[in-house]
Amino acid sequence: MRFRHPDGSTVHLAYCTNVHPAETLDGVLAQLRDHCEPVRRRLGRDRLGIGLWLARDAAHALVTDPSALRGLRTELDRRGLEVVTLNGFPYEGFGAEEVKYRVYKPDWADPERLEHTTSLARVLAGLLPDDVTDGTISTLPLAWRTAYDETRADKARTALVTLAERLDALHELTGRSIRIGLEPEPGCVVETTRDAIAPLTAIAHDRIGICVDTCHLATSFEDPHTALDALTAARVPVVKSQLSAALHAEHPSHPEVRDALAAFAEPRFLHQTRTLTPTDPATATAPATTATAPATTATAPATPATAATVALHGTDDLDEALADTGPLPDTAPWRAHFHVPLHAAPAAPLTSTLPVLKTALTRLVGGPHPLTRHLEVETYTWQALPPELRPRARAQLTDGIAAELTLARDLLTDLGLKELP
């Protein structure tokens, strides 16, 4: 879906296909037929943007076989689909029964991550519509925080610099400009947007920026205004934004709230959980740092209202937070990294962080010029929802994805953007 911003530029809205995981090119082609085209038809649009997730095997098949790449491009055109962005975060196995920590491997210190992302960039250059010259790819925020020392940090920096050089060469060869966005995620080396500033300014290349995921932003209790102001001041480009909402529990000490949260603790994905608690401002001399779970360290958001007065506590997963001896304080609201459908907040006593998404979107595209022109709805957890909320048939999933895109479209038009045919 395309929108005209008041400044005349085009903003693209897509939905991410990692909700339909497939490891092979044949699987990707089946996704287009079985899911993506039906969503487009359900929306009544002639054209629909999709953010493709290409696993290692599918990406390898496309980058090594020009005829396969041409065939995919032809199939996209035939089904009224277009691709301007890829999700390069998961490497493989995203549809496995248990993903958890595996999604963070290989990280940016491993050669496989550089080679895979290079392949994705080359594939995307061949998939962009004829009238589009800019593409984006979201990626792992360096690494999961454990076992990441200075040696691995140096390797990651070198890999990203090498990638930037390859993207420059790709632009010269094809005329297509591909940019990469590190996607901050709770528990990673780059957990927050603030964590991204130092490594990205050290690289100092406009092809390497940040992907702002609004679920992750909310889970870490980041204020969108503060986060985006800091990125702008540091001249870190917002390459793309993933529109998503986290799970919010206002009163986690209440038994009925804990019971409701327990229904979302499931075995496939990590659901990092965070809370803010007050500290004593009289004794705090810097933003408070706390580690309440094994190997979990998080820092309070650096906002004028909270600096040096709150501490961010975290666990790696929701079931850890809910354990009887769990380390997470329950005197303040909890947020969990669970991408809940945008249009369907959980039933009381839970809710979602959709208001954070709305605030972020206002800053991202509601100003005189958009901070990013690539937006992607990313709710990959439809089949991880509590059983009574999961779609039971393909048509139900189609309806749900279409409803999410409709909500996102309405938010954009409310901000003054005009939907294009």
Q: What does this protein structure show overall?
A:
The chain is α/β, with parallel strands linked by helices. 37% of the residues lie in helices and 20% in strands. It has twelve helices and 17 strands. The chain has helices at 25-43, 56-64, 66-78, 111-127, 150-174, 193-203, 214-219, 224-233, 255-262, 318-322, 354-365, 394-414; strands at residues 2-4, 10-16, 48-53, 81-87, 134-139, 177-182, 208-213, 238-243, 245-249, 273-278, 289-290, 298-299, 310-315, 334-340, 350-352, 374-377, 418-419. Helix 6 (193-203) links the parallel strand 6 (177-182) and strand 7. Helix 1 (25-43) crosses helix 12, helix 2 (56-64) packs across helix 3 (66-78) and helix 2 packs across helix 4 (111-127). It is globular, with a radius of gyration of 20 Å. The termini are close together.
Q: Helix content range of the residues, please? A: 25-40%
Order of helices and strands: EEHEHHEHEHEHEHHEEHEEEEHEEHEHE
> Number of helical runs?
12
**Over all CA atoms, what is the radius of gyration?**
20 Å
Would you count the extended β strands for me? 17
SS-derived structural category: alpha/beta
Arrangement of strands in the largest sheet: 2-3-4-5-6-7-8-16
| Main sheet: strands, sense, barrel | 8 strands, parallel, barrel
Average predicted local confidence, pLDDT:
93
Low-pLDDT segments: 283-307
Terminal Cα span: 8 Å
The share of residues in extended strands comes to 15-25%
Shape: globular
